[in-house]
Design a protein that fits this description.
The structure is a homohexamer.
Chain A (H helix, E strand, L loop, with lengths): L3 E2 L2 E13 L7 H10 L4 E9 L3 E11 L3 H11 L4 E11 L1 E9 L2 E10 L2 E7 L1 H11 L3 H13 L1
Antiparallel strand pairs in A: 1-6, 2-4, 2-5, 3-4, 6-7, 7-8
């Protein structure tokens, strides 16, 4: 999947939030997976402290406005929240391109990002690096460094 | 207090935030209580890292717009912040209803939430469960599970 | 309750820990209260990240060795853990004394701590300060500062 | 895999720790997986703040003493630490048993824990619940609640 | 530098955010310094948990709208993010004034804040207190307390 | 300062801990600096939640046993704690060596660590990289990558 997208500003995003203090944390990765399957652009949860000193989690999801319904479906079904709040946000996305590099252990995809036509980000793909590290019995960090070095040369 | 409220979207909310790095954390629960007394819908604080590597707390309060003054009164009086920032948010609240269940140790209120007329949330009241657990010398988690089971049956 | 205890080293303490990822966080303050009722010297919980990226909580309790059974009773009954680990620790406690100061709003107890006969800690009692702040409608921080100032003068 | 183990105290454990502030956090789940593959009993990482206000992570691993070498091999190879510290800990493990329950959507394994011959823990297996939730299109939390209810009845 | 600014509401601020999971945390204080040099009003980072259970950091910057370009220049150059999101916020800033107090160890600047013409904040300058504590070999907390006491008297 | 130290196990270390909920977080970096000046090997603080839902900080210091007095002097003078607890730990330190690399912008020191005579850690010095990034107006991350690449070649 070699993709290329232009740098752009997307004005039609929405940030969705809920604070939850009564949910088994074991379920959180499942909720996150569901949100991404249904089209979330990003999703994080943040340890927070709530009313009466209760520890809890803030979910914060970023999605395009037309995905609000899908996000709500997941959050109301899979978490214990009684409400969601949202507000519009604007997103500035870099031009992204996927390329690949050859390492001594095989090919690794590298995602790059450009800001005003200047290359600023270079990210070897985690999945490729982890697979190679595992299969060749080399440290993951060495695979990253070699992928990065090959890109630079 | 058996209440019932319809599912609705409330467009007149405001998120109020401050980052604070010079306040005795012992005072935080007091501030939280005050905010809820003055009508906050929700209030959390989040451990953050600020300028010069200083640990601090982000307060994040959700209130209806017409409570902004009361929230500011509390925050400027009770915290050490020199500024507050705010932005509008929209809140989608589930239909809420309070019912009760009978357990072997007594009655427990249960709050439920419905999303598009489908029951999605069932939450035994903490105060009831904690009182029963304490008075009957049973684990709190067993009280929750029995309350939940009785609701389901 | 005006107490005075000498500076000493207590060699008979134990640190008890558990990592928990499948427990409703709403129950945590209840567990903490129980631990203190049964004689814990200190108890904290720490947000951690566990196996498979699951968020969880590490409980860490400090108690005298002869309270290990009581602590285990609470933790196995009230949390969801399947195991506890412990290790001995030594505690150096300052000489503690309780005194009181007069403020314009009434008397406030102040706890002090001395290290090698030098006064190093001065802590107005939260409960007194909070009660006065509430009853007199003054900011809690002003009550603390006045209590501290009266102590110093 | 239906297992049963007796309640016991294991005196031959070791807690291994490192504080790390210069490692790509993307690598952490990989490190965790490796540690478990090599026999770690438990492994968590904790967000901490280090020298000069740098955010970092504390790794904390629990393993039997005879696994110290394997743990060190992973940690020195896969993280960026220049040192590890360790100390002995004792672990009290509950009697564990695996049973299963029938729900309307299929069989779910349930792990139980007993403390002094009293059943205190009941934990439906995450993997079974997640698979069923996914395959039957039902909320994960409903699957948990039904598994738990079936166990209790 | 003795300054005085009136209490006011600034409607032209912007909150800029990015979630980052693949950046060496050692670089974060450097990024923060750069943001403040380029005019950020405030900047914090928050430990969060991201996709696939990866720990990460949310950067949250507050700046005036006309600094958006400078903030983007820093964030795209110095972090590893491929996108930034932003949304407008309004800031209510207290009237601020700088005064000074004399302590037994020398002069300390004190920043004050007034809300509706009532003095609510009193903050001894960290840099002055730290310098004095260091030069005179006294505990920093004693310097703060004396500065505060002198202000009150 | 080009140093070389052999891989070794140091059995004479001590972990010192305190949980603090009533201290101005602004003072924490000062405390940390003092601890390192007085010989701490490592020092971190961890956001925790304490009694009554109060947020606080756990300080955790690692020092050689013969520095216990100096550490206590700092902690009792500069924090608000009324007690410290400690326990022995053993530290396994890699062989460390300092070397240097030439980049297009100048010389950068690189610290390396070897485990059983195998090079496992390579860390460009933050101070050198930050100075160069600042002086040459290049992104800090580019300086790190080039230093690392030069080391590998």
């Amino acid at each position: 999947m070699f993709t290329h997208s232009q740098e752009h500003v997307d004005p039609d995003l929405i940030r969705i939030e809920a604070n939850i203090d009564d949910m088994n944390p074991e379920w959180i990765p499942y909720v996150m997976d569901k949100l991404f399957e249904k089209g979330a652009n990003d999703a994080v949860f943040i340890p927070v402290i709530m009313k009466k000193g209760r520890p809890g989690f803030m979910f914060q999801i970023l999605a395009s406005k037309d995905r609000l319904n899908e996000m709500e479906d997941v959050l109301f079904a899979e978490t214990t929240t009684l409400g969601l709040r949202y507000s519009p946000v604007i997103c500035h996305r870099l031009s992204r391109k996927q390329t690949k590099v050859e390492t001594r252990w095989g090919t690794i995809r590298v995602k790059t990002g450009s800001y005003r036509n200047r290359l600023v980000q270079v990210a070897p793909e985690y999945e490729d690096c982890a697979r190679i590290a595992r299969n060749h019995g080399v440290p993951l960090k060495d695979v990253y460094h070699e992928a990065r070095r090959e890109f630079d040369l």
